[in-house]
Structure formats: structure tokens, C-alpha cells
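To: structure subgroup
Subject: Chain for Friday's discussion

All,

I'm putting the inputs and outputs inline so they're searchable in the archive.
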Amino acid sequence: MSSPVSTFLGTAAAILTTASFFPQLLRIWRSRSVNAISASMYTIFVIGLLLWITYGIVISAWPIIIANSITALQSIAILWMKVRYSRADARRATAAGNHHKSDAFREG
């Protein structure tokens, strides 16, 4: 049986670690900049979260399931934006490169 102190500590830890991803998510959403985001790190992290969720299900620990599910959703959203905005950046860079080449061809 858990004590009020351990329940408070666990709840506070779950809230803070879960909430810690929201500022990053919001920053990416607003700036559309994902250059400093590591897709590998977030992929590994999401796999770890899925394992935590599975563990929580196995031991019927709803706090573990809920906190890690919310964090996983945020991390998956960050990964999705990484892929989406990286592709958009690559298309813009390719278009800019092709534009400059065609200008040079016309001028030359």
C-alpha cells in the first residue's frame, strides 16, 4: 500500500515529465522548425514509452498507462512534424536550387 508521500511524488513526477514535452511540441508547431530534433531519439523514446504502457497494462497501473500514453502521443506528434516539416524543407531547398540553376542557364 502506498503512502500519501509516495502517491504525491509519483503523481508530481508523472505530471511534470508528461508536461515537459508540451513546450517542445508547441515550439515546433509555431516555428515549423525541426532541424534540432533527432528523429532517432524520438523513435527510440516512443518505443520505450510503448513498453511502459504495455508494462502498465500488465500490472494494471493506470497512472503509468495514462502518463506514458499522453507522453507517447506528444512524442509521436513531434516525430510526425519532424517528418512533415523536414520533407517540406527539402522540397523548398530543391525548388530554390532548381530555380537558381534555371536562372543561371537563362543568363549564360
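Points worth raising on Friday:
Confidence is low (pLDDT under 50) at residues 104-108.
The helical segments are 4-19, 22-31, 39-58, 62-107.

D.
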